[in-house]
Amino acid sequence: MTNGPIAPVSAIIPCYRCRDTIDRAVGSVAAQSRLPAELILVDDASGDGTLEHLHALAARHVPGWIKVVGLPVNRGAADARNAGWQIAMQPYVAFLDSDDAWHPRKIELQHGFMARHPEVALCAHRHQVLESPDVPRTEIGDFTAERISKTSLLLSNNFFAPTMMMLKRDVPHRFLAGRRHVDDHLLWLQILCAGLPFVRLSAKLACTYKRPYGHSGLSGQLWEMQKAELENYWILRRDGCIGLLTAIALSVYSLAKFIRRLVLASVRHFGESPS
Q1: Which pTM was predicted?
Q2: Comparing 16-30, 100-114, 216-230, which segment has the lowest mean pLDDT?
């Protein structure tokens, strides 16, 4: 674990049967150039020994730095993230998926930016998609910050991985309880609709090891994701964030994107199938 300065950040990792990847994820947090003040691991009722593995993992680090929460019933990543968020003690929270990893300077650079720009409530960054299981230590040079608009986020969810996100702990919304798909997109939109600034950094500060669509796990359940995206628009309509015509237009546009995505996923699957 890095002995450098501590950042006022609570890192939160939801875990479900993640023993094959959680050591890499936790290792990437422990290797930060500026260590988050606490790391919260939330086991979503895995029932396969994951909870015991998390406790053993916590025991290998400084006492008290890793907090382990075990949920009694499996509810999905949204509820697991909320459970970690509820006990977070720091003014900022950062999420990491159990099968992803952070660049060693992620906390240093992302929290540093938010500390210099206290008006920003939600900050994202770019990421790399890797085939290798390693965590690269690439140099991070100068980077820019782009303000994200509600319109652009309504049209395209480029922030599918909470791994990229850091938020102020006291933003007025949480992940939708019980939702297993596209809960992150809804939360980012609700934060924007509340008038809170959302910024993306151009630096690549995280690594993912899966494609966003057409792969295993939740991202493989394309139709369930599509239904959740459509429901998001009508939740936003109900809450007064968008108008009726906008909700209808977005639903049509979303369905068109879904059909295209299905075609691309089918072509990719056919190309990967053994001859």
Answers
A1: 0.89
A2: 216-230
What residues contact 240, with CB distance under 8 A and at least 6 apart?
Answer: none
User: How far from chain centre, in Å, is Cα 104?
Assistant: 17
- Could you tell me the two tokens for 169? 């702990």
Bridge partners of residue 38, in order along the sequence? 10
Token pair of 114, please? 């938010």
Unique residue bearing structure tokens 């025991």: 59
Q: Cβ-count burial of 236 within 10 angstroms (0-12 exposed, 13-18 middle, 19+ buried)?
A: buried
User: In this predicted model, what pLDDT tens digit does every residue of 86-118 receive, in sequence order?
Assistant: 999 999 999 999 999 999 999 999 999 999 999
CA distances to 15, 87, 134, 217 from 69, in Å: 10, 10, 27, 22
189: nearest Cα among 161, 221, 163, 159: 159
Class of domain 6-209: alpha beta
Total Cβ atoms within 10 A of residue 57? 19
Rounded to whole angstroms, the maximal C-alpha distance in the chain is: 55
207 close to 127: Cβ distance less than 8 angstroms: yes
Task: Please tell me the least confidently modeled range out of 3-17, 76-90, 123-137, 206-220.
Answer: 206-220
Determine how many CB atoms are found less than 10 A away from the CB of residue 134.
11
